[in-house]
Design brief:
Oligomer: single chain
CATH architecture of the largest domain: Beta Barrel
Shape: globular
Radius of gyration: 19 Å
Number of domains: 2
CATH class of the largest domain: Mainly Beta
Length: 305
């Protein structure tokens, strides 16, 4: 993939979004090319893309102002803004996720509660979204994952250390996933193949996760053990779930795919010494990874469905 050195690219069927290494500029290509500048005191925190939409999120580095997002229609080239005046409003920081026409982001609810908003972009960016979940007082949430099968979330309390729970948004609550080690959950993806999630086994190694799954076709109450993963790498893309695993103990960095069975398949292995994989990043029916290796960095994209 041709991309400026150090930039981060995510590709979909109808376009791409590229963020520069300094995270000051994002370029969205589709029916038209749209450049989003972070602006004074802001930086680009996330760049999401699906087959119809791209969303570039800018955050205040001082965490004093609500985040801002530019939503681009890849088919028409039109763009619109979400910010602290939107309904529901954006907030400083917080989780964002995009799948199909569904966009979710953190917001503020009644009495200042920390909540999650959901928007149907097919109704227009300026259309009012809905608040689908609010955390308890002094609690929070992050790691939203949206698929056609539902909305996964990691919630946490104000303990020291904090107790983390992963589950699926059900009504106005989060239904905890059965079989997850208490207080160790990290991220969860609900899928038509079953549910897949990760936990953090050691609190002093927050970048190392372990992945488990509950296949929809299995009657076994015990989850399937899918092995070690890079924390935060679990995504749904096309027709499967993907996660990465950094090189360790002589094993190469790998990208793995889960299609509902008792194991995950290796679909990519890095070559040439120690490496780690940034991503994966999903763009509808395309998946992109950045491979950072001793032998040289590269970005790779593959069609997944």
């Amino acid at each position: 993939m041709d991309a400026p050195p150090g930039s981060t690219v995510t590709t979909t069927r109808g376009g791409s979004v590229t963020v520069d290494e300094e995270r000051t500029r994002a370029t969205v290509t589709g029916a038209a090319s749209v450049t989003v500048m972070a602006g004074d005191r802001f930086r680009i925190e996330q760049a999401l893309i699906d087959e119809r939409w791209a969303v570039v999120v800018r955050g205040d580095t001082l965490r004093q102002k609500p985040g801002e997002a530019t939503v681009v229609d890849l088919v028409t080239g039109d763009s619109a803004q979400l910010d602290g005046t939107s309904d529901p409003p954006t907030v400083s920081g917080g989780t964002w996720a995009l799948h199909g026409d569904t966009l979710v982001h953190a917001t503020r609810g009644q009495d200042g509660a920390y909540c999650l908003a959901r928007r149907d972009l097919a109704d227009g960016v300026e259309a009012t979204g809905e608040v689908v979940y609010c955390a308890e007082d002094r609690h929070g949430f992050t790691n939203a994952r949206v698929t056609d099968a539902g909305l996964g979330l990691m919630t946490f309390d104000d303990g020291r250390p904090s107790c983390r729970t992963v589950g699926v948004v059900d009504g106005s609550a989060v239904a905890p996933q059965a079989g997850v080690d208490e207080c160790k959950g990290w991220e969860l993806v609900p899928t038509r193949l079953g549910t897949i999630w990760s936990v953090i086994p050691k609190e002093n190694e927050l970048d190392v996760a372990h992945v488990y799954a509950a296949p929809a076709t299995s009657s076994d109450s015990d989850p399937v053990d899918l092995g070690e993963a890079a924390a935060g790498s679990l995504v749904w893309c096309g027709d499967a779930a993907y996660f990465s695993r950094d090189s360790s103990r002589g094993a190469p960095a790998r990208l793995l795919r889960w299609t509902g069975g008792a194991k995950a398949d290796v679909v990519y292995e890095a070559k040439g010494g120690r490496a780690f994989i940034d991503g994966p990043r999903c763009g509808g029916d395309r998946i992109t990874i950045s491979v950072l290796a001793e032998s040289g960095d590269q970005q790779l994209t593959a069609r997944v469905s």
